[in-house]
Design a protein that fits this description.
The strands form three sheets. Strands 3-4-5-2-6-7-1-8 form an eight-stranded mixed β-sheet, sandwiched between helices. Strands 13-12-9-10-11-14 form a six-stranded mixed β-sheet, sandwiched between helices. Strands 15-16 form a two-stranded antiparallel sheet. Helix content is 40%, strand content 19%. The chain has helices spanning 11-18, 34-48, 61-77, 137-151, 167-176, 189-194, 197-202, 209-223, 226-233, 247-253, 261-264, 309-322, 337-348, 360-376, 385-391, 417-429, 447-455; strands at residues 23-28, 54-57, 88-91, 97-102, 108-112, 125-129, 155-159, 183-187, 270-275, 283-292, 295-304, 326-332, 353-356, 379-380, 394-398, 404-408. The protein has two domains: 4-187, P-loop containing nucleotide triphosphate hydrolases (Rossmann fold, 3-Layer(aba) Sandwich), CATH 3.40.50; 249-429, Nucleotidyltransferase, domain 5 (2-Layer Sandwich), CATH 3.30.420. It is α/β, with parallel strands linked by helices and 462 residues long. Helix 2 (34-48) crosses helix 3 (61-77), helix 12 runs parallel beside helix 13 (337-348) and helix 14 packs across helix 16 (417-429). The chain is built from 17 helices and 16 strands. The protein starts with 10 loop residues before the first helix and ends in a 7-residue tail after the last helix. Strand 3 (88-91) and strand 4 (97-102) form a beta hairpin.
């Protein structure tokens, strides 16, 4: 019997290790050490007891590397002999990195990519890390579940939340209704702090309640956004239909380097979008550079607030005059923007100045184009919390008939002005008609739900 106290595990981690259920699901906060403790369990199963091979699949390569490093650490601590020093790095048929630890007893622990194809036909224990934070949850589960259903191998499902439309969330609701005979664990950030996380993080033997509260407040304040805190740290999934651009998507694309205005003159090909405001909201000019055929980089953001339209016209004309490499400027020509568009077109022509009438259709097209380019990382934005929060002011709702409706809230005098300025800049740079994708609506009778029902038939209670 292994004495877990020697390894400094916290109570919620020990509870996970002591649970011997075939299928266990962990609903967790970020950074509370679940991948760490899972690595310990897997080294014990594969390296100490030689029960089975372990196949670990996470949502990205970095997590797989981190997991394998944890396994190496625990193998050393448990005096389990590895056949190789460290981890092998293999390349599978898809070109994805696969990290392998092989023990003297012949069992292996393999860290896989997020591709469901790598899980097909695998015999052994399967660990699905950050399960909800994938776009292919259903395919991953379809590939992994036969190992447990047919051969009785263990499955571990560990994740933070990613909205209420995820398969992970549907598993939790089924568990709460008693429909699945799996073990369900849940640890919020506050739970983890109360059970020793703050003390461990601060390098203390223990923390008082006041010190714990201060630590929680510090982390919550650094997160800065209530919805992110609720979902990522307090296990409270947020409705994905509400936020159009997810925060992780902006973080991934937040690599643009802004340039001073004078340096824009050296850029080869610029495009811009102007969201028009007067008093309550500001006019915002978002300038992008076409770096390559497949990459648009945000280069400059210029705000004009409180100026009358003749003054705005003068300032924008100066920009157009000093930047002959600014090929096209798209302006929100709805309402107040009509006059400003007319002024600028008279000076610079309709080829360089294009008015865009905002309607439900045009807004949908521009918003989806921008979301797609952020997903592809063919459009990069600055790593700026003000911009990220502004983008999140745009919300989407899906009607019963499957139609999308976009709306924008107001925060700090912005009515998603940065979002629409960026969307207009991409409109200026676009040469192709964008067709918005079909919308999937999760209902009890759609094909996706029916497919999941079939895959769960062998797991539900009799």
């Amino acid at each position: 019997m292994i004495d877990y106290s020697k390894f400094g595990f916290m109570p919620y981690q020990v509870a996970w290790l002591e649970d011997t259920a075939q299928i266990k699901l962990y609903e967790k906060s970020r950074r509370v050490g679940l991948t760490y403790v899972q690595a310990f369990e897997d080294v014990v199963d594969a390296g100490v007891y030689g029960k089975y091979d372990v196949w670990f699949s996470s949502n990205n390569e970095t997590n797989a590397r981190e997991y394998i490093d944890y396994c190496k650490k625990f193998a050393k601590a448990l005096s389990v002999a590895l056949e190789v020093a460290g981890g092998e790095t293999l390349i599978d048929d898809e070109g994805a990195n696969t990290f392998v630890l092989k023990f003297k007893n012949g069992k292996r622990i393999t860290g896989l990519s997020s591709s469901p194809n790598q899980l097909h036909g695998k015999g052994g224990k399967i660990v699905l890390d950050e399960f909800a934070r994938r776009d292919n949850e259903l395919e991953v589960w379809e590939a992994a579940s036969p190992a447990a259903l047919v051969w009785g191998y263990p499955i571990r499902i560990i994740s933070t939340h990613r909205g209420k439309q995820s398969i992970f969330y549907s598993f939790i609701k089924r568990l709460e209704r008693g429909e699945l005979p799996w073990a369900h664990h849940r640890t919020t950030f506050v739970d983890a702090v109360r059970q020793g996380l703050a003390a461990k993080s601060l390098g203390k033997e223990s923390c008082s309640r006041e010190e714990q509260d201060a630590y929680i407040a510090k982390i919550r304040d650094s997160v800065g956004d209530a919805s992110i805190w609720a979902q990522q740290f307090m296990c409270q999934p947020q409705d994905e239909n509400e936020t159009f651009i997810p925060w992780p998507l902006m973080e991934a694309a937040g690599r643009a380097e802004l340039l001073p205005f004078e340096e824009l003159k050296a850029c080869r090909e610029l495009y811009a979008g102007l969201d028009v405001g007067r008093t309550t909201n500001f006019s915002l000019l978002w300038i992008v550079e076409k770096v390559s055929a497949s990459l648009l980089m945000t280069r400059h953001i210029y705000t004009i607030q409180g100026d009358d339209f003749p003054t705005q016209d003068r300032k924008l004309s100066e920009v157009m005059g000093e930047l002959p490499n600014l090929r096209r400027l798209c302006i929100d020509a709805t309402g107040m923007g009509i006059g400003l568009t007319d002024y600028l077109q008279e000076q610079w022509g309709k080829a360089r100045i294009e008015g865009v009438t905002f309607s439900a259709t045009t807004k949908e097209v521009m918003a989806f184009r921008m979301k797609k380019q952020l997903e592809d990382q063919s459009f990069l934005i600055p790593e700026d919390r003000v911009i990220f929060e502004d983008f999140q002011l745009v919300k989407q709702t899906i009607t019963a008939s499957g139609n999308i409706r976009l709306s924008a809230g107001t925060k700090n005098d912005s009515h998603a002005d940065r979002f629409w300025g960026a969307a207009l800049a991409l409109e200026a740079a676009s040469m192709e008609i964008y067709v918005t994708p079909a919308v999937h609506v999760a209902t009890a009778t759609n094909r996706r739900s029916e497919r999941l029902e079939k895959m769960l038939q062998g797991f539900t209670r009799e």
